[in-house]
Amino acid sequence: MATAAHSVSVFGMIAGLIGVMALVAVNALFLIWMERKVSAHMQLRPGPMEVGWHGAIQTIADALKLLGKELITPRDVDKPVYLAAPIVIFLPVLVSFLVIPFSQNLIIRDMHVGVLLILSFAALTVLAILMAGWASNNKYAVFGAIRSVAQNVAYEIPLLITLMSVILMVGSFRLTDIVAAQNRIWFVFVQPVAFILYIICATAETNRAPFDLPEAESELVAGFHTEYSGMRFALFFLAEYTNMFIVAALATIFFLGGWRGPFLPGLVWFLIKVYAIIFLIMWFRWTFPRVRFDQLITLSWKILIPLALANLIVTAFVLKLV
Amino acid sequence: MSLLIATISFYLVVAATVVGAVIAVAARNIFHNVLGLALSLIGVAGLFLYLNSPFVALMQILIYVGAITIAICFAIMLSQPLYLPAPPRNPLKIQGAAFGAGLVFIFLGLLTRQTLWTPAAERVHDWSITTIGHYLLTQYVVIFELISLLLLVAMLGAIVTARGGRGGA
Amino acid sequence: MEKKTGEPLIHLGVLEEALNLARANSLWPMTFGLACCAIEMMAAGAARFDLDRFGAGVFRPSPRQCDLMIVAGTISKKMGPAVVRLYEQMPAPKWVIAMGNCAISGGPFFYPEMYAIVPGADLLIPVDVYVPGCPPRPEGLIEGILLLEEKITGRGRLRKFRNAAE
Amino acid sequence: MHKGWRLEIPEALTDFSYVLVFLVAAALFALGPLIIAHFIAPRSFGAARDEIYECGMPIIGGAWVQVAVIYYLFALLFLAFDVDVLFLFPVLLAYGKGYVWRDFIEITIFIGILSLVIVYAWCRGVFTWKRKPENL
Amino acid sequence: MPAFNQLNTYLYLAVILFCLGLYGVLSRRNLIAVLISVELMLNAASINFMAFNRFLAPHPAVGQIAALFIMAVAAAEAAIALSIIVALYRKLKSINIEQANELRG
Amino acid sequence: MLERGLEEKFYVLNLGPQHPSTHGVLRVELQMEGEFIVKADPDIGYGHRGHEHMAENRSYLQFLPNLGRVDYLHALAYNQCYCMAVEKLLELKVPERAEFIRVITCELNRIASHLLWIGAYLLDLGAFTPFLYCFDDRENILDLLDRVTGSRLTYCYYRFGGVPRDVDDDFLAGCKAFARRLRSRYRDYENLVNKNVIFLERTKGIGIISQEQCVKYGLTGPMVRGSGIPYDLRKCEPYSAYPLFDFDIPVGSTGDIYDRYMVRYREMEQSLRIIEQAVDKIPAGPIMAEKVPKRIKPAPGEVYTAVEAARGEFGIYLVSQGDTTPYRLKLRVPSFGNLSILPEIAVDTLVADLVAILGSIDVVVPEIDR
Amino acid sequence: MTSYVREILTGFYSLLAGMGVTIRYFVKPIVTVQYPREKLQMSPAYRGHTEFVLDPETKTHRCIACELCARTCPSQLIHLEGVKVGKKKLPSKYVIEYHLCSLCGLCVEVCPTQALQFSKEYRLAGYSRQDAVIDVFARMQAQQRRLGWPVTPIPEPQPEAEGEAEAKPKAAKAKAAAKKAEQPPEAEAAPAAPETPAAPAEEEKET
Amino acid sequence: MLLNELTQALSRLNLAQVAPGDYAKTGCHLEVEAAPAQMPEVARLMLEKGCFLESLTAVDFPEHFTLVYHFNHFRELCRTVVHARVPKEAEAPTISHIYPAANWYEREVYDLFGLKFAGHPDLRRILLPFEADFHPLRKKFAPSETPADA
Ligand code: SF4
Ligand code: SF4
Ligand code: SF4
């Protein structure tokens, strides 16, 4: 343990890097396709059909097209910040994959501060959104950004606190430890309230409907990326979908027993669970109207945070009893 | 080899810290100042890693970048009509500040150089987060509780002040 | 109306074709309706016809993220400048479909004394495909999009579909 | 494995090297397509191309406008709770390792005091959005 | 010994940061910029704590707790300071130090 | 325009003309303070097509197709009103079967309009899926109407003195089948929308319009009915065959967005009732009045007719000077009056509420602009 | 406190109910008509652009170039030229600028001989405005060709040689049509059907 | 009954004509002729009786404009049409302070006919572009031959 932890395997690092990049790209392509298919079928239509089998390469076409799109930099933007934002938003995304255990052994770096790494780097996402909106010098973008940030910070608290309930039970920040602690029973059964809260917060953190205020089309056009075109916009998109994967992976690890499951290999179970959670989040999106912004914020402060705190204290109390 | 990578990374981190700090104090656009601060703080987090404390490093990012810079940004948007051109700078003041800061720099630099630091005689090598928690629950429990009190008071004060005091503006 | 787009910095033969193929299959239209025809445009995106099958169902509200402007409806004189502005704010490569008779030539509203409308989108912006009808059926719009694909790639599935449909 | 491939540096630092490499890689990963796009994308012209988009109208006034106080207040509340979380993290790891009752009470007090922030904000109507709150 | 393994490196860095912050405090007229500079100075202190903790302190938890404590204080300070700035701005429609000085009168 | 008197802390936000939630080309200039609206100034005319000017330059008959394009969502009511106006001038009597056909098609069209509104409105509120369900139902109506009128949207179906094309039994059976189908969908709409807590939170108590405001602003249609005034021209000023049918006027109580939504929602059911009764009772007979003059050249005079369109009272004020073209034709469109209240009720709301309120007014912009 | 909890619970339940609806639709079959692959049956009354009715008896159009339709049309988009062939008038050119049409149906209704009908054509997209200008006459010829019927040529102006000027138009028309049917199709005289991909090259059937 | 009430009240106002209308022919129950200057008075009275402004428009007759106001009542059908002749180049008093609904209608009349309303708070074009220099519903209006100058 000691030697392994204290050394860098360059091969491992590079392999992990390539793997993660491939995963990010493929995942985003797949998720967008899935989103379009899921939404379509909920709406009694087939969704992408003509580009590839059942539209299978639709998103590849989209990606290629975006690659060949002009990058417009409007005149009045705050140029350095405007250009940096799409890159900054991408940084935390990749880093988060460092510590996610896809299966027993498939983990790039099992850090003892695993959760904290993901959570703290999420702060960069917030910053990037603020940068994007601010630099665009567009009222819709500024508002989208401010809302997005306010929303992100409002839901980060209950998210952290719900995760804490689990951490309290496990006593470790290491993601593999958390999975290992669920060898008898998944935490979703022990901590149902925390799970529900987590899903709500995760939906909000990834700016998905019904909490997609920052991109609320009916008010703010396209939110903080209103002024971004082509590949820059694609990067925001990519980050958004990858973030979805990350929050779903966290949900899987914290509540659904990670890679555990009978018969199939761990990786498969892990992906099944992750995509099931993502399906759930998509399902929300295509069912609900959007909440109003003040309602969104107050929901967090008035309901979610008190509930999460209560849940934490009850957990602490119960832990004391047993 | 290992040393090389570690050293390069170290200089990267130092560069981030210093460059960020320079932007933070020198850029004309206040928003760039904040971003510079964020960069600098991330650099400092990197330094903390070199100082063997990943926990504090991550918390540094979480708190400073995730919360304090955001609060500052909001305060800026609340108080600064940014579309107005920035007021001209006072060269005298800048020179004075540079001079003063330079003096302090020389003094502190010399101080650092001259002092002979002695390590503690006996050192424990337990860096785990649990220990920090344990200390917070036992030895520093007063601080721990005081912090919550401090935050409470600070928030009450902040809310009252920001909303323009009791009874209305 | 000449096209307001220029050439890329470098040309890469095969890649260009792949790109065009991708572009043709991923035409994101702008959420932009002017009058009655916009309803049929919405209908074309709805369950019965589902533009998304061709990858053209991602309606983006911001022109910065669109490839296709479907001018669906009457362009009034007051709206004209906005149409031009929106078109110019779209990043290249970009295309325009004039949907409905109004967008083609002023349609039912065109007569010599008319003071209020711009008789045809092509007087303002370069139009690639014209879909006549008042309003065109959603099928008509789909035809228009397939035709545009043909225009972009130089080959298309439209004829194939047509033959198959006969 | 060959010794040259293994770096013997402290644990925190090895972790960090991963993070750094990933950060750099992410930046490159993001930068690459942008550069490619720069070369292969056609250009467009037009007077309005570089103007800020605002629903097809010329913009009126700048975008860097003054936002509502309420956002700032929420940022403050967040700040408080973030710090709270910061201390809870280590404490929770240590929870139950010593005297559990004492730990429990301490944590409850800590959370309780912080919850007063919400209670106060709630009472002051921070969560009720009004254009001109009575006591603003 | 590599640079990152020496106490003095960190101390010098802290000094640089501190002096940059000081320069900012002295030179800027914008109150928020001043606050930003103060944050820098606080961070310099943090670095010092952590460095001493790493190289000199008997128990490594102490310095870390001190660093955490500084963060908490910085947060509280930022909250109060920003609120004051916001309130000031409302009164004066400006957040320049010079104008703020008028408040004394 | 708003620059005058713009305070420093206010700023101007443009909503439209190209904006996803202004339903076409409405532009609202918002003066904002933070998130709140200080002043909303609708800027209309982006869809101005000069209908009234055209009316003075075209013969009575040639103006017919325009009516389907004023309010393209409830085109048949507009057809009806114009035909009524000219019929009044010419003193034509429309045969009963034609009136029944008019009622059936007009009510079908009303349901289609309401369905589209519900869908688009939920889209404004951010729910995408109900929009497609509504469109799915609407397509069924369009199929039916397509059978008799030949178009899907901009109908030009009624003629002076009747209708040009008779309906067949398939159509009548189709109407009944559609009524069954729509009823079976109600439960889904209720679960998906009407009871949804987010929807309720977004609509209850917002955009309240009092009865005095209704009078002062001359609102009509679901706007006044939402505020509790049972003003429905089909009952108040019965025209066509409406007196023969039994139906209710749904009214709201508080006049908020939710009430307006519910009024429209419940109106669909009433329309279904009318359709079913009409289908059951439809008499045989001619579908055109006997002596419709070839050249329509009414005697000098003026007439005002009004019908209850989906958005409210649509009136036509027609002045004839004994020519083949109208001397003056004024289209009194419901959305014009309805929208004019926006500046008043939008003050002190959030942009999100403004979008919701704007949606609840149910504007069809080219109708306002004419 | 209880109302607080109750609100949360009912709200939560209502959300679940909504999700129940969408998931039910998720597994329902789709309603989409996958257009170019499948086609919707056009309703019998459907209004495409106007075209000539092909009289199954005379195997040609019934138009007498009376120009009523052109005068009635609100948009004045019918460009019609008639020539005197013998004592009756026949259209030598019947072009509609379809892009101005409002599909009102007035021309169809006003025609004294019911010579016009609405086509079922809706696939008209083209690359230029001109693609929306439809030569109704040529279109009819193309239809005749496809049906294997004799193709009506564009009539040449002929002087009134026979001198039966007073004949009733209907009888004359029938005769003329019969005569025309005997004439060999003059392929070169008939303009080729428009070849733009969107042009109505393949018409299904006349209903 | 509202009709009688209105007739009586209006008769007191000294108007040029207050006569019952032929509802079957014109769709109006009460026909009133008033001088433009009397309009605010009439409007105030109508508001008092709870009538709403159904429509307001103008007709461009060769010698004068006629402003046509339609009032109606929500509870009881009673359409009152008021005609007010305004000489060309004269201004009519606004009633928008009484009926806010008139605000937009008057702007529209101004926009389409060029008929000004004295005392209107915000008399600018409403349908046409602000820079337009013509009033299309005037009978002698002929649009300039620039279809594509937008
Ligand atoms: S073409 Fe016809 S349907 Fe389309 S906008 Fe014009 S009038 Fe309306
Ligand atoms: S009205 Fe009929 S017969 Fe007369 S010209 Fe037109 S199509 Fe021919
Ligand atoms: S349908 Fe109407 S607009 Fe079209 S050609 Fe016939 S008369 Fe003219």
Summarize the structure in words.
The complex is a heterooctamer. With 322 residues, chain A is an all-alpha fold. Chain A has one domain. Chain A is 69% helix and 0% strand. The radius of gyration of chain A is 20 Å and the shape is globular. Chain C has 166 residues and is mainly alpha-helical. Chain C is built from 6 helices and 4 strands, in the order E-H-H-E-H-E-H-E-H-H. In chain C, strand 2, helix 3 and strand 3 form a beta-alpha-beta unit. Chain D has 136 residues and is mostly helical. Chain D is 59% helix and 1% strand. Chain D contains 3 helices and 1 strand, in the order αβαα. In chain D, helix 2 runs antiparallel to helix 3. Chain D is flat and about 70 Å long. With 150 residues, chain H is an alpha/beta fold. Chain H has one domain: 2-Layer Sandwich (Beta Polymerase, domain 2). Chain H contains 4 helices and 7 strands. In chain H, strand 4 and strand 5 form a beta hairpin. Classes of the chains: A mainly alpha (322), B mainly alpha (169), C mainly alpha (166), D mainly alpha (136), E mainly alpha (105), F mainly alpha (370), G alpha+beta (207), H alpha/beta (150). Chains B and E meet through helix 1, helix 2, helix 3, helix 4 and helix 5 of B and helix 1, helix 2 and helix 3 of E. The complex binds iron/sulfur cluster (3 copies).
Mean pLDDT of chain F: 82
- Major sheet characteristics of chain F: 3 strands, antiparallel
Strand order of the largest sheet of chain F: 1-2-3
Uncertain residue segments of chain B: 165-169
Termini separation of chain F comes to 23 Å
Kindly identify the CATH topology of the domain at 62-293 in chain F: Cytochrome-c3 Hydrogenase, chain B
The portion of residues forming beta strands of chain B comes to under 5%
Gyration radius of chain F, rounded: 21 Å
Tell me the overall shape of chain F: globular
Distance between the termini of chain B: 63 Å
